[in-house]
Structures are given as structure tokens and as C-alpha cells.
Amino acid sequence: MYILRLLSLLTGLILASAAQAAVVGEPVDYQAGKTTLKGFLAYDDALPGKRPGVLVVHEWWGHNDYARERARQLAQLGYVALAIDMYGEGQQATHPAEAGKFSAALMAQLPVAEQRFKAAFELLAQHPRVDGTRLAAIGYCFGGGVVLHMARAGIDLRGVASFHGSLGALRPAELGKVKAKVLVCTGADDPFVKAEELATFEQEMKAARVDYKLIRYRGAKHSFTNPGADALGKQFNLPSSTTPRPTRPPGPRSSSSCGACSVAACRAQRGGPAARTPPKDRRRGTIGRRWSHLRATIPTAC
């Protein structure tokens, strides 16, 4: 009887411990100059040892629930993720005109943008659960353009990934300066990323000898990773389409909630920049909603 009670007690303790082990998400404040930035840190507290860290850069709307959810998903896959704040004070736009002003004002001050990104980089690198030598950054829309700029600037990242982000270079990549592997996932029908911009980007990457991969998804427009983009597109009369053209295979949720416009859901796999259909995970749906291929991508860079 005593042994049975002891086993029952031990079983209860184990189950209680397992219940407590879960993804932890916590707001974090940090500084860049005199500006307070409001980020969100996510990690699995059941995993031992240090692990790679990933910076998540928000869309032009600002640091919102979508960026935080991506950080949580990364934590579920074993990374420590920091959804960062590029606008400061956690500012969020509620209208495209306001979002455009926020993003344009920041990128017109590149030293400020770089200072804010580096502040988040240092915060994540110094976290006790993070291996500071194994950091990557992903970004969506505006954030995709940000992470590409930071790679061009030579920040010590193992990899960066841009999802439906702008590809134009404020400062083109220089030979030997880019340390990160680069992944770009874009919609083949994204009205904000023209064929000429894609060609110029590829020429730039090749000239600078960057290790990069460009993937274009058939039928996908802008913000195709964000399930909430269609509602925003309808609300503000922005180009949006949830259904790819019927002559093409099914693609991810394809929308456009932003006219500005990250290593993650698109898997850098075989082939070149030709348009392709998004990979399908039978359990989780298309990559626009879940990241079944994330684990296969980031470790190659981190």
C-alpha cells in the first residue's frame, strides 16, 4: 500500500511538472537611445540548455498580436523568439495611411532603424537561454524589408528570411559584407513586388555573392502568411485574394493588407526562383497558417 501511494505521489508530481512546462510568453521593455521599445519574448521553459534565437520583425502595422503569435510558434519549435518593436513605445497603426507614415519615417532614418534592431539583437543574444552566436531574423511585409536591410548592413546573423517583404535596397549589398544566408518568400501575384524588382534583387545578391534563395508562390498576393490580411484588405479596399487563379494549383491564403512591405515557414528547397505551389502539410494546412517546415530551415543557418 505504501509503495502504491508513493508511486501515485510521484506520478502526480511528474504530471504537474509536465503541465507547468509550456511555452512562456512575456512582454519585455528595452532601450534604443532615449526610446523605449516594447517587445515580446517567447520560449519553451521545458527545454534545457541554450538554443538558437530568432528576431521577429512586424508588418507595417507595428508590433501586434500577429508578430507575437509567430514568436510563440517559433518557441514551440524549440527556439527563443523575440518579436521586436521598430516604431517605439509599442505603437500600432489602425489605418494604412498611418502605417505608411510610421514605416516611411523610420526607414528615412536608417541609423535609428539600425540602432533599434541592434538593441533587440543584443537583448536576445544576452538572454540566458540563448546561444548568442546562433541568431536569425525573420520579417513580414515592412519587417521583411527590415531584415534584408540588416543583412546588407552586415549584422552578425546566421540567416534572415523575408516574407512578402520589399526587396529594394536602400544600401545595396557589398561584396563580402553580408554574413547571413538569405531566404525570400514572395507571392508571384503580389502587386507590390514587380518583376523588375525581383530581377534587380537577384542581380544584387549575385554580385555580392550572397548565399540566397528566392521562392515565388503561384496565386499568392501580398501578406499571404497572415490569416487576418483578407479582412484588412476588404476593410481598406486593398488588393486581396484568398483564392488563387483556378488554372493554378491551390496556394496559401493570399492577401494584401499593406503597401509597404521572414528563416521560417517557406522551406528553401530544390529549384530556382520559378513560381511554385506552397508545400502542404496534411496535418497543419498550408504554410500561410502553420510552419511545418520551419525546423528544416533555421537549423541550416543557425
Supply the number of structural domains. Answer: 1
At the fold tier of CATH, the topology name is Rossmann fold
Q: How far apart lie the N and C ends?
A: 52 Å
Give a short account of the largest sheet.
9 strands, mixed
Q: How many strands in all?
A: 11
Low-pLDDT windows of residues: 1-20, 241-297
CATH architecture: 3-Layer(aba) Sandwich
Strand-pairing-aware structural class: alpha/beta
> What integer is the average pLDDT?
80
Order of helices and strands: HEEEHEHHEHEEHEHEEEH
Count of DSSP H/I helices: 8
- State which percent range the strand residues make up: 15-25%
In the sheet with the most strands, the strands line up as 1-2-4-3-5-6-7-8-9
Please write the CATH class name: Alpha Beta
Q: Report the radius of gyration as a whole number of Å.
A: 20 Å
Using brief descriptors, characterize the structure shown.
Rossmann fold; two-stranded antiparallel sheet; alpha/beta; 302 residues; 32% helix; globular
Please tell me about this protein's structure:
The protein is an alpha/beta fold. The protein has a single domain (23-301), classed as Alpha/Beta hydrolase fold, catalytic domain (Rossmann fold, 3-Layer(aba) Sandwich). The protein is built from 8 helices and 11 strands. It has helices at residues 2-20, 65-76, 96-107, 110-125, 142-152, 195-207, 229-235, 294-301; strands at 23-32, 35-44, 51-57, 80-83, 130-140, 159-163, 181-187, 212-217, 275-276, 280-281, 285-286. The strands form 2 sheets. The protein has a 9-stranded mixed sheet. α2 links the parallel β3 and β4 (80-83). The longest helix is centred in the N-terminal third of the chain and has 19 residues, at 2-20. It is globular and about 45 Å long. The N and C termini lie far apart (52 Å). The model is unreliable at 1-20 and 241-297 (pLDDT under 50).
